[in-house]
Amino acid sequence: MGIIGILVALLYPTIRGVRLAGERAEAQRAVKAIETAMLAYWNDYGRFPLQESAAADKQYTGLDYTNLIAALRGLSAKWNPKNMTYLDVSDKQLTSGRLTDPWDSDYVVWADWNNDRQISAGPYGPIQGRSVLVWSKGPDRSDATASNRVDDIRSWGD
Asked: For the segment 51-103, what is each residue's pLDDT rounded down to a tens digit?
């Protein structure tokens, strides 16, 4: 019995590492899927979901985030009158209409509403040459400060 306990204890870090790698891969796929959906929406409508003017860059939060996911899924006649499905996600991935990462945090989504190809994305500062930024806060569920952004999963490189 003791030997089995020792073997389980030795295998636990490996199993945990494999699980974390799977969660990170799932989050990376979702980040890319959201980014692709946002760009496809832009190509069809010439604007981003919920955009009514060329205002400053937009981070989707709260109700706007829920409406964003509905629009990208083709479930909002107001924001997606063509009822196109840009983002195909399972109900398992949704929490009250919100798309959450494997660690139960909303994905962070920013869009370049003023079309200057630069997004002032909160803790990451200005990112040049992008129309959409999407990231997961990662397993630590913390906002990206210089000391803890190493585990974030992002749609862009450094």
From this structure: 987 778 888 998 899 999 999 999 999 999 999 999 998 777 788 888 999 99
pTM for the model stands at 0.86
The structure tokens 């996911």 sit at: 69
- Report helix angle 2-45 to 62-72, nearest 10: 80
Enter the tokens of residue 27: 């989050």
Per residue in 107-122, pLDDT (tens digit) is 999 999 988 888 887 7
Q: Which of 90, 119, 76, 112 is nearest to 29 (CA)?
A: 90
Instruction: Tell me the C-alpha distance between 80 and 70, whole Å.
Output: 9
Long-range contacts (CB closer than 8 Å, 24 or more residues apart) made by 63-71: 65/98, 65/106, 65/109, 66/96, 66/97, 66/98, 68/109, 69/94, 69/97, 69/98, 69/99, 70/97, 71/41
Q: 108: which residues sit within 8 A by CB, 6+ positions away?
A: 59, 122, 133, 134, 135, 136, 137
Type of residue numbered 42:
W
Of 114, 91, 99, residue with least CA distance to 33: 99
